[in-house]
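Bench notes, afternoon.
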Amino acid sequence: MTSSRKSASREEEPDAVMIGALVGPFGIRGETKLYPVTDFPERIPRLKSLLLRHPDGRWETRALRSARPHRGLYLLTLEGVTTPEAAEALRGVEVWIAAEEAIPPPPGQYWVHEIIGLRVVTPTGEVLGTVREVMRTGANDVYVTDHLLVPATRDAIREIDLDRGVIVVVSREYLTGEAPLPPREQGEG
């Protein structure tokens, strides 16, 4: 991408994957601290440009001049950010990369952006809601709909079909606590 910045409106959201958030300035030369939320932070220094999503929903592209690890964070030098004040102005901005640059997840695993928006349905096709958020817990992710919490486990989910845009769950009763745990098939761990 070119080094020039471009802005996009909320309606023009890019196909992108969030990799972190800017949490404040570092030093006197305009470096900014990135809190990474990616499974592959070691690739951040190799990126050429980043998509920045401002709290007001505005998007812009900035060239990444340099990046280096520092105490669990990454220190970034972004094009046009040369003072601590300019870096401070970026506090709270989300950092994304184009989806085509993302490393594919292992088979049977999904990125959060792939799960958000999927319909949760029963095996009979009853729609139970749409995934609005993914909560990260210590044991497993939990898919949040308007009225249900769906644990991302084999006990609760039969199938995730990205092409159809659905998550097929065991049953409504299981998710609402009205049914016992279904028996596991032999050979499942």
